[in-house]
Amino acid sequence: ITAAVGAWARGAAVLPKPWNPPKPVLPVEGMRNVLITSALPYVNNVPHLGNIIGCVLSADTFARYCRLRNWNTLYVCGTDEYGTATETKAVEEGLTPQEICDKYNAIHTDIYRWFDISFDYFGRTTTPQQTTIAQNIFRRLLDGGFLLQDTVEQLCCEKCQRFLADRFVEGTCPFCSYQEARGDQCDKCGKLINAVELKNPHCKLCWDVPVVKPTQHLFLDLPKLEERLETWLEQSWAKGDWTANARYITRSWIRDGLKPRCITRDLKWGTPVPLDGFRDKVFYVWFDAPIGYLSITANYTDQWERWWKNPQQ
């Protein structure tokens, strides 16, 4: 308090000059470098005030604070554009998935500009950089022995001649009997669902009754990483600033034992899987989307690794 009173008495003239970083903003030796991201908003809707508050406003406030402190700050965000939600919206509006992304990315960009959200760069995930970085991470996982193949029983619509991703199938929840449960979870009871468990399933595109067929998919072999992850978590919990809720959820996953997680989908709209036997599939959006933070930064600057692979700064 004494220091604040003293600074106020001396006036603005003695304050340090504002830091105006050159463009693009890159880490600077000897400065405090801060990289800020907002959760990537999904592209298939028009953002409303709740989205602004829940998604970008807190990060924007923190970015402004960091700049006032003369910290070298980069704040990036962008629209999350791959996955079944985009395909579903495209069907609803009679457009292609790319047209849906172009339309709603422009709407998002205009709204955040109107709210004066102080992004250094607002991008999107449907870019060549996203494909390059995601496929590179995939190949490194493959070469490291962290992927496995398995056969999955999946609902297939013979009328549409396609396997039905989670959002393209609807039916009765096996837990609470809600009649409009999706193929990934029930919006009434909140439980996660395997689509083949749905009672009275139907294809949301043509309303035909799907059949169960086997299909090959790739899985991230999470049990192989469990021991190394536990060690890292203990160090991170000791040094980091985790919320109680984040600690609880993470501990429960570790306690119950990690399971292999499917990272591919029988869809057209997504980052292609660069492996023979799987080239007609794309990456599951939850494998692909977090990589968007890296690729959006890569669209901002070709020196993106100085932000993402530079723990010393």
Fraction of residues in β-strands? 15-25%
Unreliably modeled segments:
none
CATH level-two architecture of the domain at 31-140 and 288-312: 3-Layer(aba) Sandwich
The end-to-end distance, rounded to whole angstroms, is 31 Å
H/E series: HEHEHHEHEEEEEEHHEEEHHH
CATH class of the domain at 31-140 and 288-312 reads: Alpha Beta
* Main sheet makeup: 4 strands, antiparallel
Could you say what the CATH topology of the domain at 31-140 and 288-312 is called? Rossmann fold
* Helical content band: 25-40%
* Lateral strand order in the biggest sheet: 5-4-9-10
Give your account of this protein's structure.
There is one protein chain. The chain has a four-stranded antiparallel beta sheet with strand order 5-4-9-10, with no helix packed on it. A three-stranded parallel beta sheet has the order 1-2-3, with helices on both faces. It has a three-stranded antiparallel beta sheet with strand order 7-6-8, with no helix packed on it. The chain is built from ten helices and twelve strands. Among the domains are: 31-140 and 288-312, Rossmann fold; 164-212, no CATH class. Helix 3 crosses helix 4. The chain starts with a helix and ends in a 5-residue tail after the last helix. It has 313 residues and is an alpha+beta fold. Strand 1, helix 2 (49-68) and strand 2 form a beta-alpha-beta unit.
Task: Itemize the secondary structure elements and their pairings.
Blueprint: H1 2-10, E1 33-37, H2 49-68, E2 72-79, H3 84-93, H4 97-114, E3 121-124, H5 128-143, E4 147-157, E5 162-163, E6 169-172, E7 181-182, E8 199-203, E9 211-220, H6 226-239, H7 244-256, E10 261-262, E11 264-265, E12 282-283, H8 285-288, H9 292-300, H10 305-308
Parallel strand pairs: 1-2, 2-3
Antiparallel strand pairs: 4-5, 4-9, 6-7, 6-8, 9-10, 11-12
Helix pairs in contact: 3-4
Catalytic activity: tRNA(Met) + L-methionine + ATP = L-methionyl-tRNA(Met) + AMP + diphosphate
Domain Methionyl/Leucyl tRNA synthetase: 34-311
Protein name: Methionine--tRNA ligase, cytoplasmic
